[in-house]
Specification:
Pfam families: Zw10_middle. This is Centromere/kinetochore protein zw10 middle domain-containing protein. The chain has 76 residues and is mostly helical. The protein has 4 helices and no strands. It has a domain of 50 residues.
């Protein structure tokens, strides 16, 4: 598993709110700054856009998470 996949799966995805009204509190700017720091330190190559694409898809991730929560409650 790549570093970006691990960070996404275990840190970022759990932090995505399931309520769209809370999307504004997601630290998108901090994530992009973190991405840029990793690029500047040559930890990631410049063709890596994983974190920036994550922030672009944030609304869809929120919708998916909300849908999963609804399905889990329906199964209970």
């Amino acid at each position: 598993m790549r570093f970006t996949d691990i960070v996404t799966k275990y840190c970022l995805e759990p932090a995505v709110p399931s309520d769209g009204s809370q999307l504004g509190s997601f630290p998108t700017e901090d994530l992009l700054n973190f991405h840029n720091q990793l690029l500047d330190s040559h930890f990631l190559s410049h063709d890596t856009s994983h974190f920036s694409s994550f922030t672009t898809n944030l609304e869809m991730l929120c919708i998916n998470k909300r849908s999963q929560n609804i399905l889990m409650k329906a199964r209970e």
